[in-house]
From TrEMBL:
Domain HAMP: start-end pairs: 213-266
Catalytic activity: ATP + protein L-histidine = ADP + protein N-phospho-L-histidine
Organism: Ktedonobacter robiniae
Name of this protein: histidine kinase
Chief location category: membrane
Record keywords: Kinase, Membrane, Phosphoprotein, Transferase, Transmembrane, Transmembrane helix, Two-component regulatory system
Domain of life: Bacteria
UniProt key word Nucleus: no
TM helices/strands, residue ranges: 21-43, 190-212
UniProt keyword annotation of Secreted present: no
Annotated PROSITE patterns: HAMP, HIS_KIN
Enzyme Commission code: 2.7.13.3
Length: 499
C-alpha cells in the first residue's frame, strides 16, 4: 500500500514531461485509430470493387458460350464452369455443395426457369429472376445473407445479367461467390492493426518520454545555473542553445534579468556602504564633541558652542536621512508626485531669494540672468528641491568672488533651467558618474572644511526627480572655468495628455 501511495505521489499530479508523453501518446493513438479506420474502409471498398470486377469478367466469359437458336438455348461450356445437365436434375442433397469456396453459376431463361445451376443455388433455395424484374437495367448486383446447415451465416455476392438479342431478352446468367474470404482478409487486417497498436503506443510513449527529456535538457541547465545564482553568484549566466527557439529567448530573458539583479545588488551594496560611512561621520562628530564636553567642566559659552556644533551635525544627519529615504522610495516606486501647473520662473525666483544670503556669506554673486515665463506640469515641491540642490551645489563648488547665474527659457516644447557657475569645474572622467549616489572625486566634489555639509546625494536626487517628470538633465564642465547644468522639462501644453 505504501509503495502504491509513493508511486502515486510521483505520478500525480503529472509533471510536464509526463504530460507531454501522455499527450503525444494520446495524439498518436487517435492518429492510429483514424488511419486504421481509413485503411480498413479503403481496403474493404477496394476488395469489394475487385470482387465485383471478377464476377463481371466471369459472367462475360460465360455469356460468350450461351446462344439462342429457334427459341432454344445452346450452351457450349468451353470454360468448364457451367454446371452439367446431370447436376441440374440430380438430388442436391447427394452432391457436396459448399458456396464458401468456388464459383456459383446459374442460367435461366427469360421467364425465370432454371436451365443450368450449381448445386449451391438449389441447396440454399435462392430465388429465381425473370427478365421483367430487371426493368430498364440489364445488370443487377446484390449481396444475400444465407445460413448454412451448420447454422453459420454466409454472405453471397451475386451478379445477374440479362442476355438479349436485338433488344429481346432470351436468357439470364447469374454468377455468385461467397464473401467469406473477403471478410477473412478484413478481419486479419483488423487483428494486425489491433495487435500492432499497443506496441506502437508503447514505443511511442518511451520515445516521447526520451524526447521530452532531451527537449528539457536546456531547462535543466537553466535550473542548475539559477540554483548557483540563488547561492549568491550573480556573475554567472545561463547557457544559450544554438537554436533561436523558445528556450533561447527564455535564456536571453533570464540573463538580462540576472544582469539587472547583479547591477541592482552592486548598487545596493555600494549604497549601503556609502550610507553607513556618511551616517558614521556626523554620529562620530556628535559623540566626540559630547565626550569632550563631559570630560571637563566648561563655561556657559563653551557649552553653547558645543550645542551649536551638535545641532549643526544633527541638521546634517537629518538631511542625509531624508535624502536616503527619498531615494529608497524612488527605488521602490513609492514616491507619489502631485502634478499641477508650475511656473518654473517663479520657482527659480523664490529659490534665489532664499539662497542669496548663503551666497553672500561666501562672497559669491547669485543672480537670475533671464527668467522667461515657462509653465510646466509637475510636483512643485520636488521642482523646488531640484532648483535648490543645483543652486546649492553651484555655490558650494564656487570659490569666493565667483558668480552663479540661473536662466529659465523656452525651447520648442521644452522648458529649460540652466544653472552656471564659475567654480573649479569637473574633470571629464568624472562627468559620466556625477549623478551617481555618493560619488565623490577630489577635483570634482571636494568642499571647504567650513562648508562641508554635502552628502553626495543632491545630484542623484535631482536626476531622479527630473526623470520622474519625463525630463532630462545634462552637465557641461571645464576644469578651472566652471560648470553648467541644464534641466529640460516638457511644457504643460506638450505634457497634458501624459499625466
Amino acid at each position: 500500500m505504501k509503495t502504491l501511495q509513493r508511486l502515486r505521489s510521483h505520478l500525480w499530479p503529472m509533471g510536464t514531461r509526463l504530460q507531454l508523453t501522455f499527450w503525444y501518446t494520446a495524439v498518436l493513438a487517435l492518429i492510429i485509430l483514424c488511419a486504421g479506420a481509413i485503411v480498413y474502409k479503403y481496403l474493404e471498398s477496394s476488395l469489394e470493387g475487385s470482387f465485383d470486377t471478377t464476377l463481371s469478367l466471369q459472367a462475360g466469359l460465360l455469356t460468350s458460350e450461351i446462344s439462342e437458336q429457334n427459341n432454344h438455348l445452346t450452351i457450349s461450356d468451353r470454360t468448364g464452369n457451367i454446371p452439367s445437365l446431370e447436376a441440374t436434375h440430380s438430388d442436391p442433397r447427394s452432391i457436396p455443395a459448399d458456396i464458401t469456396n468456388g464459383l456459383l453459376v446459374r442460367i435461366l431463361d427469360s421467364n425465370g426457369r432454371v436451365v443450368r445451376e450449381s448445386p449451391g443455388f438449389r441447396l440454399y433455395a435462392l430465388p429465381t429472376l425473370t427478365s421483367a424484374q430487371f426493368g430498364t437495367q440489364q445488370i443487377m448486383q446484390q449481396t444475400l445473407k444465407l445460413r448454412e446447415q451448420k447454422g453459420d451465416k454466409v454472405e453471397l455476392r451475386l451478379y445477374s445479367q440479362v442476355l438479349t438479342d436485338h433488344g429481346r431478352p432470351y436468357a439470364i446468367i447469374q454468377v455468385g461467390e461467397s464473401l467469406n474470404q473477403l471478410h477473412s482478409v478484413l478481419r486479419n487486417t483488423a487483428y494486425v492493426l489491433l495487435l500492432l497498436t499497443p506496441f506502437l503506443l508503447a514505443i511511442s510513449g518511451l520515445g516521447s518520454y526520451w524526447l521530452a527529456a532531451r527537449a528539457f535538457a536546456p531547462i535543466h541547465q537553466l535550473t542548475s545555473t539559477a540554483r548557483a545564482i540563488n547561492s549568491g553568484d550573480l556573475s554567472q549566466r545561463v547557457p544559450l542553445p544554438r537554436a533561436r527557439d523558445e528556450v533561447y529567448f527564455l535564456g536571453v530573458t533570464l540573463n538580462a534579468m540576472i544582469a539587472r539583479l547583479e547591477d541592482a545588488f552592486t548598487r545596493q551594496k555600494r549604497f549601503v556602504a556609502d550610507a553607513s560611512h556618511e551616517l558614521r561621520t556626523p554620529i562620530a562628530a556628535i559623540q566626540s564633541k559630547t565626550d569632550v564636553a563631559l570630560l571637563q567642566p566648561l563655561s556657559t559659552q563653551e557649552y553653547v558652542e558645543v550645542i551649536q556644533q551638535v545641532n549643526t551635525e544633527t541638521l546634517r544627519l537629518g538631511d542625509l536621512i531624508r535624502n536616503l529615504l527619498a531615494l529608497a522610495r524612488s527605488d521602490e516606486e513609492e514616491a507619489h508626485l502631485i502634478y499641477e501647473s508650475v511656473h518654473l520662473d517663479q520657482v527659480v525666483d523664490a529659490v534665489i531669494s532664499t539662497a542669496t544670503e548663503l551666497a553672500q556669506e561666501r562672497d559669491i554673486t547669485l543672480q537670475a540672468q533671464d527668467l522667461a515665463p515657462v509653465e510646466v506640469q509637475g510636483d512643485e515641491a520636488r521642482l523646488i528641491q531640484v532648483v535648490m540642490n543645483l543652486v546649492d551645489n553651484a555655490i558650494a563648488y564656487t570659490s569666493p568672488h565667483g558668480c552663479v547665474s540661473v536662466t529659465v527659457k523656452q525651447e520648442g516644447a521644452q522648458g529649460l533651467l540652466v544653472v552656471r557657475d564659475t567654480g573649479r569645474g569637473i574633470a571629464s572622467e568624472h562627468l559620466p558618474h556625477i549623478f551617481e549616489r555618493f560619488y565623490r572625486a577630489d577635483a570634482a566634489r571636494s568642499r571647504d572644511a567650513a562648508h562641508k555639509r554635502g552628502s553626495g546625494l543632491g545630484l542623484a536626487i535631482v536626476d531622479w526627480i527630473v526623470r520622474a517628470h519625463q525630463g532630462r538633465i545634462s552637465v557641461e564642465s571645464t576644469v578651472g572655468k566652471g560648470s553648467t547644468f541644464t534641466v529640460s522639462l516638457p511644457l504643460k501644453q506638450a505634457s497634458t495628455n501624459n499625466w
